[in-house]
Specification:
The protein is an alpha/beta fold and 456 residues long. The chain contains twelve helices and 24 strands. The longest helix has 20 residues.
């Protein structure tokens, strides 16, 4: 009796789409049917909605990430980065963390590298600003803000103090608003330990190019959020662009300029640049074109056999929209649901059945504005304050993968009710070798011995 070759499903990226799709595939397909291979340079999936809380110290940063090898035990994990996809040959080039690149053939591929920060050619942005999409950026921002409080409390130079206590956030979407609100809340809480400083010494600035914030919810909810932030003496600049931040001098399109030690860029995302190195069809914004079944299609609407995509990097039609041509928004809510549908469709196609369209109405949005403060618009119902904040926490606790992480997050929140917030900076984490190199003399290696290799 002839044996049937085991197919290979290659999952590119372990974000919301990659992790959920791989997890469902590992449970749906039998070992004799297919193996699931996941490629990602990070050993974990970051649950991005928890980044603001991790940065503010409400939860441990480790509890906002999900270890891949623990969660995907029935999958094969490759620690590396897909640098090229040649779907015509059904081969992906993987660059491991160390060593030469390798080619990985596949039968089906799930292209889900996600998105990166959408930046603009602004002078000084690359040198002065930090993004807010990774756990590393969240930890850095927390340590940096607390360090600025130490600088301000110690210096005798009023200009140095003013610069240290000026914090600029560019972008008024959910990422920017939650990051701004949580960090301001943390810093205000920390000032109880700084008798030299007053809340009025801090200058928190939100720069948004459009005339509204939180475009994901109705205008009245955005207006409510602005009012709440203004009550906390935050400086909200709508219809304003960042023109330059070279040398730490922030110049805005409204003519104002000031110095700031902290500049955070949260002004949107774009598809991962890795997609430039593929032969898969894309739209004018660089997203992979897909059917509602999450199968990739070419310019003639023909299915590209064996290619699938979802999430931020995919253009997926929204079948619940009132008019044709509307695409699903790049949200975690859609990504998780698309991942489930995508995995089920791969299994259906492998077993000779027709895939099913993805059709899910956007439930709504929730956002935290700091401890015990929030806004929510769910199924058309609008909530604010403590109830919205509790809904925000409940929803995201239910969505983070693994029972292990759910328990750890709930424990963090529970302890926060009884214990004071941790406001210590661990800035040395970002340059851990500096204290050692400062006290270690430089030695010129012997001829023929390169740095990093032991002499024989």
């Amino acid at each position: 009796m002839a044996t049937v070759a085991v197919k290979r499903i290659l999952v590119v990226g372990a974000g919301h789409v990659g992790l959920y799709a791989a997890l469902r595939l590992s449970r749906k397909v039998k070992a004799r049917e297919a193996e699931v291979v996941v490629v990602d340079p990070q050993p974990h999936m970051t649950y991005q909605p928890f980044l603001p809380e991790a940065a503010a110290g409400n939860i441990s940063p480790r509890h906002s990430v999900v270890p891949l090898r623990r969660e995907l035990r029935r999958c094969r994990i490759l620690a590396g980065e897909v640098t090229r996809i040649e779907h015509a040959r059904k081969v992906a080039t993987v660059q491991p963390i160390i060593g030469p690149p390798r080619e990985v053939p596949y039968d089906h591929i799930v292209v889900a590298p996600g998105s990166v920060s959408r930046t603009l050619p602004i002078p000084g942005l690359r040198e002065q600003a930090v993004g807010f999409k990774t756990i590393g950026e969240a930890i850095y921002l927390r340590n940096h803000v607390l360090e600025r409080l130490d600088v301000a409390a110690t210096t005798t130079d009023p200009e140095v103090r003013r610069c240290a206590l000026t914090f600029v956030f560019v972008g008024g979407g959910y990422a920017g608003i939650e990051a701004l609100a949580e960090m301001e809340d943390m810093a205000r809480d920390a000032l109880r330990y700084y008798p030299e400083l007053k809340p009025g010494d801090m200058h928190w600035v939100l720069v948004e190019a459009t005339m509204r914030i939180l475009p994901e919810v109705d205008p009245d909810m955005g207006a409510y959020t602005v009012k709440q932030l203004l009550k906390r003496s935050l400086d909200i600049r709508l219809g304003t662009r960042l023109e330059s931040c070279a040398g730490g001098l922030v110049e805005l399109s409204d003519g104002d300029s000031f110095r700031a030690d902290t500049i955070v860029w949260t002004a949107g995302v774009k598809p991962h640049p890795m997609l430039d190195e593929t032969d898969l069809p894309r739209d004018d914004r660089g997203r992979i074109t897909c059917l509602p079944t999450l199968q990739v299609i070419d310019a003639d609407n023909h299915v590209v056999e064996g290619a699938w995509s979802a999430g931020d990097c995919a253009a997926v039609p929204d079948l619940t929209a009132d008019k044709p041509g509307v695409l699903c928004s790049p949200s975690a809510q859609h990504a998780v649901r698309q991942a489930t549908r995508l995995a089920d469709n791969i299994v259906l196609v492998m077993r000779g059945r027709k895939p099913v369209d993805y059709k899910q109405k956007h439930v709504g949005s929730v956002a935290s504005l700091g401890l015990h403060k929030g806004v929510a618009q769910v199924y058309g119902i609008k909530l604010t304050g403590l109830i919205a904040w509790l809904m925000h926490r409940t929803y995201h606790m239910s969505r983070i993968p693994s029972f292990n992480r759910k328990v750890r997050v709930v424990v963090d929140w529970t302890l926060a009710w009884f214990l004071k917030r941790e406001v210590v900076s661990l800035g040395e984490l970002h340059q851990p070798r500096e204290p050692f190199t400062d006290v270690t003399p430089a030695v010129t290696p012997k001829t023929g011995v390169t740095s990093g290799e032991p002499a024989r």
